[in-house]
Description:
By secondary structure, the protein is α+β, with helices and mostly antiparallel strands. It folds into 3 domains: 2-100, CATH 2.40.50.100; 118-161, Dihydrolipoamide Transferase, CATH 4.10.320.10; 195-414, Chloramphenicol acetyltransferase-like domain (Chloramphenicol Acetyltransferase). It contains 9 helices and 21 strands. The longest helix has 18 residues, at 222-239. The radius of gyration is 28 Å and the shape is elongated. The N and C termini lie far apart (66 Å).
Amino acid sequence: MQVEIKVPVLPESVTEGTLGDWHKQVGESVAAEENIVDLETDKVVLEIVSSTPGVLESISYQSGDTVKSGDVLAVINTEGAAAEPAASGDKAAAESAATEAGAEAEPAAEPAEAGSGKASPAVRKLLLEHGLDASDIVPSGKKGAITREDVERHVKQQSGEAKAPAATPPAPAAPAARAPAPGGRNDRRVAMSRLRTKIAERLKQAQNTAAMLTTFNEVNLKPLMDTRAQYRDLFEKTHGVKLGMMSFFTAAAVEALKRFPAVNASIDGDDIVYHDYFDIGIAVSSDRGLVVPILRDADQMSYAEIEQAIRDMGTRARDGKLGIEELTGGTFSITNGGIFGSMLSTPILNPPQSAILGMHAIQQRPVVVDGEIVVRPMMYLALTYDHRIVDGREAVQFLVTIKNVLEDPSRLLLGV
């Protein structure tokens, strides 16, 4: 029986995706729930898995192709057997084995010429690493695609030619322009990933549509750090997770949002939508770019639940395992540039949210406390807000509320 592997139904905000690397090739066996290809969307990289065990019979799209919901990516033959690997590098033998396994063998084609192929993002990266042009490579992939093996074979051939001794001494040549030294003034052109393109689009959208303004304050974190030091071991022993800073900042932000609903609102056309729930986005840096997973109903979460959720989301963000639904929505965001050493910055809104809180590096600085100069762990806070919704007075008071809660964590227990 043949089973089609399709692009899953994508959320309304995600219309299409780009295929990444295929983890299985035609003729190879596939287990149920095994990842066969990656799909890069505007938000996350999805793993497309096989719904049944069998043999990969055919592939409809190549790496780098754009696909939409419902597109058939591949066909699994549930009654086929995996092709045995060829004993030698003979291409004809490999194709014969694939045919016996149930894969459709394509008629032999004329030898491909250099310059006729296209390359997947992974292959393009390999070309850049070796300083090669795709037009120099003879493709062997389906529909004239350049494969990794094509690039590696070309590199080996070049290496062999470079080592081969010349048959006769070369004739004197006219002076030529000096070639750039390895590692010198070279340019590399790399296509933007779909996620990076979407980030750029949304940030520019925020600049073009929102009336962004940023207000600043500083907070003395000694009371918070003393509280952490006092309960750190007991907290970890009780809940199985470390007590970090983000749970305090998230709780403080939720308290401030309750007092100033406009900061938790968004604009929809000519209307202001006030949200009576608190979905807090926590910005996480990954190799692919910045993503903002959402803590749903953060006001109903304990400190331990917040810490556990943030640790889990951070790990899965770096591994590319976040689901699209975990990155959709959000009423307010928090970003921590301090972990990279940022002292002060003006964060950009995450549309359609009306505000974002920026945390920064903690520094020991001299401050005046009760008329005396003392050294305290200080942090600058920044609140960027949409002035179309939030007035300056509300923004300043919102940030002061966060400052007061962080400088006296017991305020949350007393509700003051």
